[in-house]
């Protein structure tokens, strides 16, 4: 079994599907060479298993490789222009590609001409990759490391450095630098910062922008390191809606880290405690939280909405995040809102869980006062609005059963009843029915 010496100096035997090793044997028999590349190599050096296998094949062409792969599963030519062949295997994802060069010939991320050449050296092919930590390969089957641009040294020293001039041909790599800085706790090399500052994100689609922001804020890591890269590159100029928390970028970084750590802890103890949508809503609310504590708090929903509209089409984020931030801005952090106020906040947010978690992540003394977060959570739980909004006790069916006719008047009665419920004057279904009967009686007189 092939092993890898990790950065920590330990021997690690990464998972390698037996079928992949058989394929590699056949490739070598045909005169070719196969390298695992990209994230798999990086993760192996960190002592982690990765089930996404990207294999770059050298010294044989597509006409020779495809018959080999067809012996082991169904092949799918993902992109003829890119020479990527996907092999469907149960439980694993195997993508085979050929060494290639890319030339920028047009606007946007599709404006490339790709040339595959199985005779390229690994060093020549790796020159098109983004960062040195992603430009390493391990030749199969022995996992011999090939590192032409010093990726392992940069991984050891937590430096994110671009490989070469081709980096500038895809501006998405700016944001990839931000999310990699977070995930691997890296600092951008000065020359990489300088290059990134010359590039623009204006040619990128909403979908591509959103994916990188999600990776920054939702994948395990240290989001404050991503924020540092974001600021080093000067992206606050391109995204002016991302502002410091109470005037402090350090405080915003601290909030992002606390949010990430708190979310991870919750999900470790109960994987169903937060849905994927809730995780996204909390993460983007945290990123935009500086708007809620800015001098112009009344503008918080507009600023959040403007930012989100530039990077996503997801309706739940466009609706929920600005509302969370507006409620967050309305807290004075000195006194827990009253029960009626909490119920109304819960109606706006469909429960106070995310607001409580955002408050819990807020660093003192910027906003969070000692004990306020716990007191807010306890108060929300006590009146049953932490996980969900209160639902009206009084329903249309109840009023119909009383003999009331459907119409606008019925709707107004349900609304009045719900307001009394939020105020705490109607405490249960029995109270709601008794109140409705009095109203019905007065209407019939």
Care to describe what's here?
The chain is an alpha+beta fold and 445 residues long. The chain folds into 3 domains: 4-157, Beta Polymerase, domain 2 (2-Layer Sandwich); 273-390; 396-444, no CATH class. 48% of the residues lie in helices and 12% in strands. The protein has a 7-stranded mixed β-sheet with strand order 5-6-7-4-3-10-11. A two-stranded antiparallel sheet has the order 1-2. It has a two-stranded antiparallel sheet with strand order 8-9. Helix 13 packs across helix 15. The N and C termini lie far apart (89 Å). Residues 105-109 have low confidence and may be disordered.
As a percent range, the share of helical residues equals 40-55%
Q: Total helix count?
A: 19
**CA(first)-CA(last) distance:** 89 Å
Residue fraction in strands: 5-15%
| Low-pLDDT ranges | 105-109
CATH architecture of the largest domain: 2-Layer Sandwich
Q: Structural class, from secondary structure content? A: alpha+beta
Neighbour order of strands in the largest sheet: 5-6-7-4-3-10-11
For the record, the count of structural domains works out to 3
Shape: elongated
CATH topology of the largest domain: Beta Polymerase, domain 2
CATH homologous superfamily (4th level) name of the largest domain? Beta Polymerase, domain 2
Please describe the biggest sheet, giving its number of strands, its sense, and whether it closes into a barrel.
7 strands, mixed
Question: What's the count of strands?
Answer: 13
Give average pLDDT, whole number: 91
CATH class of the largest domain: Alpha Beta
- Radius of gyration from the CA trace? 28 Å
């Amino acid at each position: 079994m092939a092993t890898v010496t990790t950065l920590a100096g330990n021997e690690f035997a990464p998972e390698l599907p037996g079928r992949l090793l058989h394929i590699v044997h056949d490739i070598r028999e045909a005169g070719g060479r196969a390298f695992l590349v990209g994230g798999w190599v990086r993760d192996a050096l960190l002592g982690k298993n990765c089930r996404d296998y990207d294999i770059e094949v050298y010294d044989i062409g597509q006409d020779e490789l495809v018959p080999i792969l067809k012996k082991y599963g169904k092949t799918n030519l993902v992109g003829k222009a890119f020479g990527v062949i996907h092999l469907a295997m149960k439980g694993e994802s195997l993508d085979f590609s050929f060494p290639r060069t890319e030339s920028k010939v047009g606007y946007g991320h599709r404006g490339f001409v790709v040339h595959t050449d199985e005779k390229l050296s690994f060093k020549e092919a790796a020159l098109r990759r983004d960062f040195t930590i992603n430009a390493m390969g391990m030749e199969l089957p022995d996992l011999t490391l090939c590192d032409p641009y010093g990726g392992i040294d940069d991984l050891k020293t937590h430096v994110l450095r671009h490989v070469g001039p081709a980096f500038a041909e895809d501006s998405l790599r700016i944001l990839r630098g931000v999310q990699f800085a977070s995930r691997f706790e890296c600092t951008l090399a000065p020359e990489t910062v300088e290059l990134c500052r010359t590039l623009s994100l204006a040619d990128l689609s909403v979908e591509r922008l959103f994916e990188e922001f999600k990776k920054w804020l939702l994948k395990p890591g240290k989001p404050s390191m991503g924020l540092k890269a974001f600021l080093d590159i000067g992206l606050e100029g391109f995204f002016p809606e991302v502002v410091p928390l109470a005037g402090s970028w350090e405080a915003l970084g601290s909030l992002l880290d606390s949010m990430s750590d708190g979310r991870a802890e919750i999900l470790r103890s109960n994987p169903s405690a937060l849905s994927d949508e809730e995780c996204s809503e909390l993460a983007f609310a945290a990123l935009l939280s500086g708007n809620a504590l800015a001098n112009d708090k009344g503008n918080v929903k507009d600023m959040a909405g403007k930012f989100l509209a530039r990077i996503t089409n997801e309706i739940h984020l466009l609706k929920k995040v600005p509302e969370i931030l507006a409620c967050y801005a309305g807290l004075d952090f000195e006194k827990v809102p009253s029960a009626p106020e909490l119920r109304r906040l819960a109606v706006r947010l469909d429960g106070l869980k995310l607001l409580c978690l955002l408050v819990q992540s807020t660093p003192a003394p910027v906003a969070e006062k000692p004990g306020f977060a716990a007191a807010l959570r306890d108060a929300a739980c006590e009146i049953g609005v932490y996980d969900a909004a209160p639902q009206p006790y009084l329903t249309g069916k109840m009023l119909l059963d009383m003999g009331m006719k459907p119409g606008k008047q019925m709707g107004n009665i349900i609304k009045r009843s719900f307001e009394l419920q939020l105020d705490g004057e109607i405490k249960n279904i029995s109270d709601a029915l008794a109140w409705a009967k009095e109203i019905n009686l007065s209407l019939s007189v």
